[in-house]
Amino acid sequence: MSKYVCPMHPEVTQDKSGICPKCKMGLVKQKGHSKHEDHDKHAGHSVSMFKNKFWLSLAMTIPVLAYSASIQEWLNFSSPAFTGSEYIPFIFSTAIFFYGGLVFIKSAISELKAKMPGMMTLISMAIVTAYLYSVATQFFIAGDTFFWELATLVTIMLLGHWLEMSAIAKAENALDAISELLPDEAEKIVDGKPKTVKVSELSVGDVVLVRPGSNVPVDGKIVEGSSSVNEAAISGESKPVTKSVNDEVVAGTINQDGSIKVEVSKLGDDTALAGIMRLVSEAQNSKSKTQVLADKAAFGLTITALIAAVITFAVWFVINGAGYALERSVTVLIIACPHALGLAIPLVVSISTTLSARNGLLVRKRLALEAARKLDMVLFDKTGTLTKGEHGVTDVWATKGYKEKEIVSLTASLEQSSEHIVGKGIVKYADEQSIDTKKTSDFSAIPGYGVRAKISKEKYLAVSYSYINENDLTIPNDIKDKVRGSAKEGKTEVYLVKNDKVIGAIALADIIRDEAKMAIKSLKSMNIQTAMITGDSEEVAAYVAKQLGLDTYFADVKPEDKANEVKKQQRDGKKVAMVGDGVNDAPALSQADIGIAIGAGTDVAIKSADIILVKSNPIDVVKIVKLSKATYKKMIQNLIWAAGYNVLVIPLAAGVLFSVGIVVAPALGAAIMSVSTIVVALNAQLLRRVDLSS
Predict the structure, then answer these.
(1) Domain holding 212: CATH number?
(2) 266-286 pLDDT tens trace
(3) 634 closest CA partner among 352, 378, 313, 235
(4) Which of 620, 682, 90 is nearest to 362 (CA)?
(5) For the chain, how many structural domains are there in total?
(6) What is the pTM of this model?
(7) Cα–Cα distance list, 338 to 121, 333, 501 (Å)
(8) Label partner for 310 (CA 20 to 30 A): which of 114, 214, 542, 627?
(9) Which residues, including other chains, have CB under 8 Å from residue 587's CB and lie 6 or more apart?
(10) Domain for residue 412, yes or no?
(11) Share of the chain above pLDDT 70, in %
């Protein structure tokens, strides 16, 4: 029978589809797992489990140390003796072995079943060997027991795993915080009145009331009311966004000011927030090339340690007897545990993925983020990416006897009733410049050319150059060259005509994002080539490229040909990132080494992209490169430390410096191993301090 599981909370499973009670995401069908698939050494483990086991094992370790002959001799003290006191190390070490050590043994069995022996196998071999030998010497054969070494070893191992689990849990806390943004209940409008129901009981088309201060429970459209909404959970933007009727709202965002009624459009795992959580989860669980290298190194180290332990035992058995030989081989097994190596990459991956989500970068493929540090070129789509996709006024010209503000006022007055994108751009500009408009009469559209109306009984036209040309109107010489020059830059011209005479003109162009200029400048400072690809004319492309300072551009490119242009750049040996809207640019996004989708909004799961920019801000492309470099740097630092540590300490554990008096005890070996793990964990945590905005 198929099982259904929550993508965010794998412990939540059931026999049929439904909603996760923890995060309200839809359950998905659980995939089958073969014994050769990735093995999770911490399956079923938790921070609190290791924490509790550590403290109790530590308490039981104290009497073991107090009644161990070796410790008493080294520190020159004696503990109170009583009948049976000689069995205290055995009794408490046995309790520690089964209470604290059994968790490692169970995990080792899982590793062996998966045919992937690793650190749990090494730890288990060390503590099982130490325990059995100590019991044998306590009751059956002559020799020194390892009870105090066993107790301290298990306790230190528990401490190391507690710290590791705690570090990983902190890295994943952001996802838990996101899931908490989704409320369990909503106020559904029934017969005109709000009724509290479970979110899981809602259906598409229902209307819910969202009061001030409440979290929006679903994705939907406002059908009544207006408010400001905090969308930081989705976009990372802390400034509230004003929302009114027909505007969309997203589940998990916070309604701040007024009550709004929202018609449900998406629920459960279809919502934008669920999509974000799913993408973050996928990214955290996906492996990078560096992780694969670390896994191979850890596996190789495990096999090497086992061979080294056998050789060590054999050599020291001949030289110094079974007891010392066992101590050396146990120390090799302990100190060679690839614990730090196993933690080196996953913790960095977890932290970097969480960091990217907090900065509005949704990473669908880890390999894409890793490759960003090697980019040679970033290829931007123009409309909606480098530009806002809306026309804005760039130039205003007035003929003799008129002022520029007067031209804007008259033209905006004519365009007040226009639905055309150009007319709206002029009206918006007048509003931004606080230029008053005038009352009009007899308004009518001139299809294909512009609009006409009367202002103070005078007849005015706001028309294109085609109208001027076809009606043989003259453009005054004092503005003619300037206006026609703007046309060569790909700008749209609007001429203001009064009583069949041109008295002024306004030029408009697709507004270039200020953030785009910053992004291009930053990328060029990183020696990354910048380019634009657009279906617009050569003139328009040249103008935008010049304004942004792009290295190159490709104009008159059809959507279906964009992927071919990406291929051409790749054939020249370049690593190319394509930045687009994820719709027209889907083939190019898929072809590029890294596909970056602008404009996530409520359509967060754009399948053609590797990375999604939630805030639709091109400057976030720079953040991707910075995060990639910082993440890779931490991975390499951790790998060098973890692998280098093992290369150096295994010979010491084997006793190669015995002749000069340097001997590593099993407990000291465990401590050194744990310190190595802590160093790796702390180094990974430093990634949180990376400032992606600078």
Answers:
(1) 2.70.150.10
(2) 877 677 666 656 655 554 455
(3) 352
(4) 620
(5) 3
(6) 0.63
(7) 10, 10, 84
(8) 114
(9) 559, 560, 562, 563, 608
(10) yes
(11) 79
